Recover the amino acids of this structure.
């Protein structure tokens, strides 16, 4: 006795250049959501995985977030000073809820002061300061 195996043909979204399976009304989930919100149908955004590693000099770990690997991202969030890039003796810090967080670095006094002034101009109600990092 022979068995008949059913063949399944995936029905694809009718939006041009969309190859996702149909969810409802001949549209994929993303295009159906656009239509149900009354928006014009547009191509869906695609995300591509990061091919770069950690932006910290000398680190070869894979990228995790904010351009850094997971350990360096955690250190940046904590505001620790171990993330000072080589040749950047100036740290720009911002005050938030009574604590100071490092938000940038400067290689020389002029570039550090320019960055500090841009920060102060963009948010005058927040405290900013410039610190000369100790020589390592």
């Amino acid at each position: 006795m022979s068995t008949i195996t059913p063949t399944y043909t995936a029905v694809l979204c009718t939006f041009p250049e969309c190859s996702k399976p149909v969810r409802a009304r001949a549209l994929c989930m993303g295009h159906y959501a656009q239509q149900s919100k009354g928006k014009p149908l547009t191509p869906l955004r695609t995300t591509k995985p990061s091919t770069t590693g950690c932006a910290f000099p000398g680190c070869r770990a894979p990228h995790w977030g904010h351009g850094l690997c997971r350990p360096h991202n955690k250190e940046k969030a904590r505001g620790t000073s171990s993330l000072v890039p080589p040749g950047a003796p100036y740290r720009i810090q911002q005050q938030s809820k009574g604590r100071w967080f490092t938000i940038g670095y400067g290689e020389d006094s002029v570039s550090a002061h320019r960055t500090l002034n841009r920060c102060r101009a963009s948010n005058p109600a927040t405290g900013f300061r410039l610190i000369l990092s100790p020589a390592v």
Notes: The radius of gyration is 25 Å. The beta strands are 90-96, 99-106, 128-132.
